[in-house]
Design goal:
By secondary structure, the chain is α/β, with parallel strands linked by helices. The chain folds into two domains: 286 residues, 3-Layer(aba) Sandwich (Rossmann fold); 90 residues, Orthogonal Bundle (Rna Polymerase Sigma Factor, Chain: A), CATH 1.10.1740. Helix content is 35%, strand content 16%. It contains twelve helices and 14 strands. The strands form four sheets. Strands 1-4-8-5-11-12-13-14 form an eight-stranded mixed beta sheet, sandwiched between helices. The radius of gyration is 20 Å and the shape is globular. The mean pLDDT is 94.
Length: 391
Amino acid sequence: MTGKRDLLEAKTQFCEVATPANPLRLTNGGELPHVTLAYETYGELNERKDNAIVVFQALSGSAHAAGYNPDGHPPEFWTEELHTGWWDPFIGPGRAFDTSRYFVICANYLGSCYGSTGPWSTNPETGRRWASAFPTITVADIVDSQVRLLDALGIETTLAVTGGSMGGFCSMDLAVRYPHRVRCVLPIATGFRATVLAKALNFEQIFAIQEDQDFHGGEYYDGPRPERGLILARMISHKTFVSLSLMEQRARSELVQPDNLLTGYQLQHKIESYMLHQGRKFARRFDANSYLRIIGAWQDFDLPGQYAGGDTAKALRPCRGQQWLVFTINSDVCFYPDEQSEIAEALKANGIDHQHITVHSDKGHDSFLLESELYGPYINFKIQQVHRSQA
């Protein structure tokens, strides 16, 4: 385990990307007159501003992708497990995203609860938290807000955009709708759309949160938070993030009976204890309203349907001239391998320079967060190749 002294120094920064004079117009109608994004950067932007890499977080991540930051925002959710960046093994000098060469940017999603404008943040118009009044958002809205951040940083074209899982949605959306701003696209363990299985699992999570007796239609900030619903939502999703073998390895040998959470049932197996632990840990670090907004953006995502009438090959037509590196995890049951094969086939149909790498791992979907050694050599080589070609 890397010691804290060996980690990059990381500090959250904030950028106002929408104002009443320049509101953020949303895909589903309406607009946000005030939007602030929390973000972190690593490495140095060069004079030509052509060495920037955008990292899109996964579903419940934050702007804190690398290094050590014990003072993240907001303190109510910034538990100890968040102090080390969620993608730290991938970002730093000599790593997959080499900060001695490149300027890496990671911003917290619009709608999230780690410093960017979302239901947890204060609505300047009312002086109260947005709560249920915060509008529904889409992946396109998240991407549009981050393009405005790039504008504020003076970055016209990125060297690369990347992300795993839902972050892959964002990287592909940016590549399709802003093709001139991307040279290399690295989607990891993702797909073109929310599948039927994903929509079913996501709906179960939505239902679990909204039916919690403490949810109150999203107006719960003056009382107890809907902890039970969020715990159940995390348990529903977690079983698709890690392989069953890894789950069994991680499970403690002893049972830990929860206090005041289960009625009429005693835990019988270490897997039950493990799943409940994961749910409770998540409920301490995330806001239910934010989770609903981000899950909703996942439910809505269909890149070919939204931009190409369902034609997968046509969806990537604007990306000619880019280079792509697509990663599959062979044991992934959150985004199955055939979803990345579909992406690769669409790239091939358009004659787009691409590679499709299958990573063999026993860790399931979370491999892309844990096993940098399986991805790093391919990522580093591809980015260096693209960077040299633009010199």
